[in-house]
Amino acid sequence: MSPRRSASSGAPTFTEQARRQQIIESTIDLISTRGYPAASLSAIAEEAGISKAAVLYHFSSKDNLTRATLAQVLERFSAYVAERVGRETDPVDALVAYVRAMVGYQQANRRHVRVITEMLLDDEGGTRLKTPGRHETGGRLQGLVDLLAAGQAAGRLRAFDTRVMALAVGGAIDGVVSHWLADPEMDLGAAADELVAFTLNAVRARD
Q1: Buried residues in 105-122 as b, exposed as e (16+ CB within 10 A)
Q2: pTM of the entire predicted model
């Protein structure tokens, strides 16, 4: 078997997978510390300690590499949130878990937040994925809409437009995290408590 790729399956070998992950981690480091424009293929190769040709072997262009990097970051973020929300059977508890997980993941993965910010808010950066103010990345908006709809169906939440409410809650989370990125001294744990209270006050059914 070739150390590069199995001729029979065409699937990446363990060595290839490890190299791809090394390149992606170097891309995350570079974007999170120096910004997307500075993350050239040459700079990424230097960060990873390999040649530019080696980077291009695994990713045919910077665009393909950065898209793969963003996809991995979003996948890990989504999985983290989904796992914590999935633990809850009560729809209100699930909504609280969502808010806390959204904040908790970003607090623990500051580099990933920088990558998402750099790549989703700059349409001219080469990815052209989203525009500022859009919250549907990675199914995020629909996931929150579904949580809110489940709460309404169970009679636990008041009547409201679930899409508008999801945008409001998502925007509040984004606003708090954006401020924390600019001011790391901010108590993000306390902010999460306030976001939970804000969300519950906005959506709970009134007696």
Answers
A1: bbeebeebbbbbbbbbbb
A2: 0.81
